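Recap quiz, item 2
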Amino acid sequence: MSHALEIHGLKKVYSNGFEALKGIDLSVNEGDFFALLGPNGAGKSTTIGIITSLVNKTAGRVKVFGNDLKADSMQVKRDLGVVPQEFNFNMFEPLLEIVTNQAGYYGVEPVLARQRAEESLKKLGLWDKRKEIARSLSGGMKRRLMIARALVHQPKLLILDEPTAGVDIELRRSMWQYLREVNQRGTTIILTTHYLEEAEQLCRNVAIIDHGQIIENTSIKALLGKMDRETMILELAKPQAAPLHLEGYPSTWVDSHTIEVEIYRNRGLNALFGELERQGVMVKSMRNKANRLEELFLDLVESGVKKS
Amino acid sequence: MNRLHHYRIALATIVLKEMRRFLRIWVQTVLPPMITMALYFIIFGKMIGSQIAPIDGFSYMDYIVPGLILMSVITQSYANVVSSFYGSKFQRYVEELLIAPIPLSLILIGFVSGGVARGLMVGGIVTVVASLFVDLQLHNLWVTLSILLLTSIVFSLGGFINAVYAKSFDDISIIPTFVLTPLTYLGGVFYSVSMLPGIWQDVSLLNPILYMVNAMRYGMLGISDINLWVAYGVLLAFVVALFSFSLWLLKRGVGLRG
């Protein structure tokens, strides 16, 4: 399978001596929906900055659809669409101008640019606001504007840096749906996010970056397969006077109606429910304490911290 | 798509965007120089100028018109690019251009064209205002237009360099206040350099604006304290030097890239 993105030995040392990237290798397949995860300051935005020519690399090589960023930067730029973390449009320009201009920067003829801007704004529910200046939009609308702008020149690779930060859940889910459609139409997507549910819902493959190094690079399925335990929260039908003791299942007493139970993969759930049955405890509902990927992510990052 | 065709569209997009920007805020960009110049004509031309003897055969009012037109072109070209480029850095929408497949030289030309458009437009308006006070003269159209254009390019590039280094809005007013305005006032807009005492005539020759004002005066009135070709040489040298330096700054990513 051909690669949308190939990174080899990418290093970045800032002028203050901070080594943001310590020689990372990464590849993203064409058509993939790929998550680049990591804690704050791990090197995600620096990596994206280098790919998008906003940060100068110290060493290493970046290729986008086989074109070298250094040797053929114009072709690389043509294939990229970027939704940055921070708003970076002219707050005093009307939306239609922002999106149409973006198409113009990529050489799209004015009539077609206007047409594409209309399509893009309509798809993201912003057409009614087209004549308003960007400053008047809500936070969620500004995020959607950046997506509309990034897609107007029909890039082959779309990079989204925290695209749903600060967006309410309803809007986030509608944005997920839209991004899925974009991916299904053939656009490769790389996503960084702090909402790990988002990565789990949308992405097929994942890389976790920490302290400027890739500590995991695999499929989401394989990554979740590595989980050896999950923490579940059980809501009890009746209050319990004293903490329960569940043999083989470490548990924490939250309140008289709620307990947290750690469930190891090799033990499964049947024995737990057998034990609860034996003690006459009826469970009303059960849910994961945290998103599964989030739990795994924290384990990986924490074990990385301990090692370092 | 043909790359040249793409670049032509990209450049046109930047230039039109720049023009829309200053036209959208015309009350801040176009109106003030009209009022300022009208005041210059009333105070220096009509009220004080009527008491001053003719210079090189021209009334004082006629004598200062070319310099005043050029002064508005200088300040407006500079102001447009310095505020526009600094604004794009401040709000980070310069990134729209930096990530797009546009050569850095075209980005620079786009911003400079915006400055030139505003400079020449305001210059044109000031000329119309001037025509209300004097009978405008035109000795050589091509000299006048070429000097206006070159001067506008020089100061648009100056504004660009200022914006690259600026870290706050205060920084974009320091150069106009402490460098540009004094040099303009001492650049022979209101007097002939021959009226200065000996040493100051030589010192004035270090002021590039003196060459521009005199070349403009030649274009309109046919008189100049400076050889026209020397003035062209100075202007072209500034255009080449400032353009090269601006492009180098963009390539290095000074103030733009980490």
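The longest strand of chain A covers residues 3-13.
Chain A is about 35% helix and 30% strand.
End of item.
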